[in-house]
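Morning. Coffee machine broken again, so started the prediction first thing and wrote up yesterday's gels while waiting. Chain of 350 residues, entered below exactly as on the submission form.
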Amino acid sequence: MTDSEDPALDSAYTVGVYYYPWYAGDFHGGRYMREHLQPPQPPSLGEYDDRAPEVIAQHLQWSRAANVSLWVASWWGPGRREDTTLLQRILPHEELGDMQVALFYETSGRIPEFEDMSNVSADIAHMAANYFDHANYLRIDGRPVLFVYLTRVLSRNGVLDEVVVRMRDAATDAGHDIYIVGDQVFGQPTNSSALGLLDGVTNYDVYGSMGAQGYAGQQKVDAYYAAQSKWQKLANAAGAAFVPAATPGFNDKGVRDGHPAVSRKLTKTSEPGSLFRAMLQQAASYTEPATGHMLLVTSWNEWHEDTQIEPVVEAVPTSLDGRDGAYSEGLEYEGYGERYLDILREETTR
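Came back before lunch.
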């Protein structure tokens, strides 16, 4: 594909998706809500092995068609499945083209109890040796970008400053000046010295931050982005960039219990996908030139929390799940095909 044929060039934004290279073909024993629907709604590709060249090729093709130019890839440590999939299958893929890749540092796995920092320096050294110099690795102002999960928890535990120092020192020792985007934004804005420790901030858990359940409605969406506007002002005042985010919905009943689902429709009578569209329309207005007008989508393929926009088999909407709504919570789920790719393309095209 030449540059002129690349649909992502039709976007005024750097559209990023959180990408999970952790599926070995059984989807962790299933454990996602849509496998329990009647009839089931599996991925269009089936329960795939994400190392298969044809799966990566299809993900790249779909991404480009939806204006996605960045995969923010979940990373759990040197030699782990995600690391080897990225290094051995995704980055060398013959169809990678201009797709940019950045790592999403999973602190819950790499910083035990959000206190033990013994892995940090070696992790960054590994990244520097294997990722940061790659032509497809994301850079801002020439600096390799690292997204860090739950910096807000590290901050609350009083260790974020030390984690950041270790990261920057290890990167500097390897000849890199890293650009750290922290998952610092959540709920109502609070001014914190943590904002000044980071180069950029964002909100991974859009669902939790929005605080909606059932049908979110336009009021919840408006309130969420009103709070995001305040977060942006605080971040910018501290010298950090702001990266807005959006999500299509949420349901984690297939993997755990305890979180109310949020429908992918704004209201019961709204069009399928209307929550995602409403969120994108507002998220786009908070992008910044300093980040290439970046916005992030939670997620490309986090099937266990049903935040994925990856295509699913086409099927009529259903709330039947064989357990009296224990999985669907009575909400209708559509076998949506490529609907969310279409919405993302429509809302991010020039």
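Residues 87 and 103 are 12 Å apart (CA to CA). Going to sketch it on the whiteboard this afternoon.
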